Structures are given as structure tokens and as C-alpha cells.
Amino acid sequence: MDENFLVTKSNYFIMNTSYDLSLEEQKIILTLASMVQPTDEEFKSYIFKISDFMKLVGVVDKSKYTEIPKITKELMKKVFEIKEGNTIIQTAWLSGVRYEKGSGKVILKFNPDLKPYMIKLSSTFTQYKLANILSMKSKYSSRIYEILKCNEFKKQGYIEIEIEELRKLLKADVIYPLYADFKRFIILRTQKELRKLTDISFDFEEIKTGRKVTTLKFYIETNKITPLLKTAHEEVSATIMELEEENPLEKIMSIMRESKITSLEAKKLNDTANGDIHKIKEKYHLAQNTPKIDSVVGWMIKAIKDDYQVPKRKTKTGTFNDYEQRNYDFDDLEKKLLGWEEKETVETTGEEFQQLSMR
């Protein structure tokens, strides 16, 4: 995996497919795409180191290694459509994923249906360095980046896209039905990310039909600032997150991804919790550890209102332990049992330990 690898896609594919991938899933697909060579005859099996893969999807804790198969399995389910004249192709991104135990590797392969849009492209295709998208924090930014990148050299210097069409391309028509939210959480946020992190930037003009904004005119420019190195990307992304408030509904849906809630359900939870994301996350964690819940959202609304707490464990007592316990330094005792202390120390405390164990 190299940030200088080039992602290559046909312009037709970029402008005529709509799909909904999480930020992590997009990074997997685009990193995989950067391993494909335009001169290849067929898709190959592309190998990722598990350590690199974990960094790519933002899994820092090595104990959460089991999250990786869940992410790839979910990605395998993501079916989308490609329009080819009167034909609609329904396909998935990957044809298969393999894990080799003990090798520290995961192997992915693109679906053969994508071959015409990524291999042996002779004209009307777009190339860009993988580094341009790896540090993005919004799943919509990389998608808009591709759309603008493939129109970067329009003779008129701009591209016009109807808002409804852009919403469909981004699969954002349900979660952002209001233009004000669409502008705030997608367009303006993407504008900042592209300006800070990529080789292009843009300004835009709103075109109205009557009193309603119906079209956006994007003026695309080559970014005068060289995209920052990876070591600085995290600082820039953190700054963007501080400057731009994240849409709470999108965050809630991300937290509860496994439950696949709707934007309306996310709004109900947000309203019930008065915008307290930490409370929603806390109750969702509680819900995941509570058996026999018919409706997760309904249960969580009641849990937020009644402030459900994690039940305390009850310790049974009887005649055997129904007395005042003596206080021991169990950390010290454990070290002695495991032989972690110096031999001399064990010898000097051996008699004391024997007395303790006989009490």
C-alpha cells in the first residue's frame, strides 16, 4: 500500500454510478483500485498486510482484529447499479475475500463486472494519487473529489450539476432532504477538506429556479498548496473537525451501523437525548448487551428517558465468607506466585506468604 499509487477509473463510471459506502469502505475500495494497473488484462488477487488494513479502516486496538472480517463481510453485501444505455447492471464491489491464518494477510479481489471501468482504459478516464483521499473525514468528500477531478479540465472552467442528481450520486437524498443541511454538512465540509488535503479546490455558485436552489455551478481549480504529507494529515483533519460541526444524525447512524437505523430514527434518538451523542452511545452499548430486544430504537428511547444504567453485579455471601475480609496486596501476592520478583525477595517473604495462605 503506497500513497503515491494512482487510482484509475473511467469518467463514465464516476458520473453514472451511485453507491453508499462508509468512509472506511471507500478507503478499502480506493486503495484496492490503486493496486490495479491500467495495463492489466484481468483483476488479480491483491494482498493487504493486516496491520496496514487495520490502519486503513481506523482500527487501532489490535485486540479488535475480529472487526476486520465484519467490515469486509459488510462490504461484500454492498450491491450498486451501473447504467449502460438501456441496461442496468447490479453488481458488488468484490468477488471474494480470503484470510490466511497466521500469515497476517488479507486477500481481496474486485468483481469482474468492474473490469471495463478500471482496466485497459484508452480514453476519458481519471487518475489521481491515493494520498488525496486517505486522510478525509467525510465519506462524501472523496466522492465529490472524484466527480470534480474528472471534470477538472472542462473548457468552460466549471461544471453544473443539479442538486437532485448530486444527491442521488452521493446517496444523500434521504439523510439530507433539506438543501440547507446538504450545503452545510456536505458541500461546505467537502470544500474545506479538498482545499486542505488534495490537489484541487473549488468555489461554487447557487443557481435558483424561482426561489429554490436547484443547481450548483462548481468552479474547479488546481490547488496551489501542495497536498500535505501523511504525517501532517491527521493534524489538518482534526482542525477541520473542530471547525465544522458534524451532522449528529450521520454520527448516530454511524455509531449504530450494525442496527441499520433510518435517518428518522436517528432524529428521534437525537431529540430524546437532547443532542447528547455520548448518552446515545452509552445506551446503545447497553442495548447490545441486553438480550431479547424487539426494537432497539424503541428500547433506547425508553433507556434515555429513564436513564438506564449498567446493572451492578451482586455478590452472594454465606457463612463461609460472611465475615470481615483481611486486606492483602494482591498485586504483590500475584507477582510472588508467578515468580516475577527477584529470588532473594521470594525467599525473604516465603514464610510470610505461607502463613497468609494457611489463614
Rg is: 27 Å
Strand proportion: 15-25%
Broad structural category: alpha+beta
Helix and strand pattern = EHEHEHHEEEEHEHHEHHEEHHHHHHH
Number of helical segments? Answer: 16
Please give the alpha-carbon distance between the first and last residues. Answer: 60 Å
Question: What is the 3D form?
Answer: globular
Helix content: 40-55%
Low-confidence stretches: 227-245, 319-326, 341-357
Question: Could you characterize the architecture of this molecule?
Answer:
The protein has 359 residues and is of the alpha+beta class. Helices cover 45% and strands 19% of the residues. The protein has 16 helices and eleven strands. The protein has helices at residues 11-16, 23-35, 50-56, 67-76, 115-118, 131-134, 139-149, 163-170, 179-197, 230-243, 248-255, 263-272, 277-288, 296-306, 330-338, 343-358, and strands at residues 6-10, 17-18, 46-49, 79-84, 87-92, 94-100, 105-110, 125-129, 158-162, 200-209, 212-222. The N and C termini lie far apart (60 Å). The model is unreliable at 227-245, 319-326 and 341-357 (pLDDT under 50).
